Amino acid sequence: MSVELLVLPYTAVSFSVLARFIFMYLLYSKKSTNIYSLTFCGLSIVSSSIWIPYGILQNDIPIIVRSGVEILLLSISGVYILRNRCVQERSTRLTPASSLAPNNTRPTESLAIL
Predict the structure, then answer these.
(1) In sequence order, what are the residues at sequence separation of 6 or more whose Cβ sits closer than 8 angstroms to the Cβ of residue 17?
(2) Suppose 105 and one of 47, 63, 94, 109 were both cysteines; which one would form an S-S bond, judging by CB atoms 3.0 to 4.6 Å apart?
(3) Alpha-carbon gap, residue 111 to 104, rounded angstroms
(4) What Cα–Cα distance (Å) separates residue 7 from each residue in 1, 4, 21, 62, 106?
(5) Would you say residue 114 lies in a domain?
(6) Would you state the pLDDT for residue 94?
(7) DSSP-derived secondary structure letter, 95
(8) Cα–Cα distance measured from residue 59 to residue 37, given in angstroms and rounded to the nearest whole number
């Protein structure tokens, strides 16, 4: 295989890995607990897991590298989402209902201000 032809798959691998890092940054900056992001991670891990044996059978190193890195990064993202969901659930369970009222005022005090 010529050097020019090798540039294409490794460029595609680079863009794929870059996209996963952007996804991870967005998850981190938004403290995501989105079930759709978690579903995306799971489906992508399954997809990449299927591509690895194909890459091995075809002796295609770029596919193996991309899929392996993607599984690693998506696993980290999935664990991060699950962690955020657990923290969010735990904090809502520990928050008393009375502290959810605005300014912790009783309804009669709010009317007295009007």
Answers:
(1) 66, 69, 70, 73
(2) 109
(3) 14
(4) 11, 5, 21, 10, 68
(5) no
(6) 78
(7) S
(8) 32
What pTM does this model have?
0.71
Amino acid identity, position 16? S
- Establish if 59 belongs to a structural domain: yes
Kind plus residue range of the DSSP H or E element containing 97 = none
Q: What is the distance between the alpha carbons of residues 57 and 46, in angstroms, rounded to a whole number?
A: 18
Query: How do residues 56-101 score in pLDDT, each as one tens digit?
Result: 999 999 999 999 999 999 999 999 999 999 998 888 887 765 555 5
Using CA atoms, how far apart are residues 33 and 87, in angstroms rounded to an integer?
10
CATH number at residue 75: 1.20.1280
Domain of residue 51 covers 23-94
**pLDDT higher than 50, residue 112:** no
Q: How confident is the model at residue 111 (pLDDT cuts 50, 70, 90)?
A: very low
